[in-house]
Specification:
Length: about 160
Amino acid sequence: MTKADRPMVDQHLIEYNEAERADYLAVVASMAGVDGSVSSEEILAMQQLCRAFVLGPEARGRVMAATTAGVEDLDTTLERLGTTNLRHALVLDLCMMSWRDGQLLEPEEAEIRRMAEKLGVSSRQVAILTHFASSLRQGADLEQSLTLLESSGVPRSALA
């Protein structure tokens, strides 16, 4: 597994309670099925994230079920997460999940934009975060990419 294939882990997420961590990961997991199929790479990434954030069996089940579209009312979850400092990291993780299978399709882009709007992330920031995720997949210089994010109003600390 290459560095780009490893799931991004927002270390700040571990500071949140299990319900909030599960909300966050359920939203990320929902991106896996937006393109109409869920790849083994996407499932593996979600399993790794569930382990990294020490989710119990019930929370893990909820997250993995979210890979199937329509399992959960994500708008309510997005409203809850939109009030936290996780919104930029979440949009980035949505982008990373969308790229997990090697391509970003229009339905995925549309869903990222919809979710970002619910989270209060601007369209400019979404474009920068999408570009950042693509750059990471291609092995771009991390420091240069982080500087670009900061210039768009995405705090570096939001992505730590």
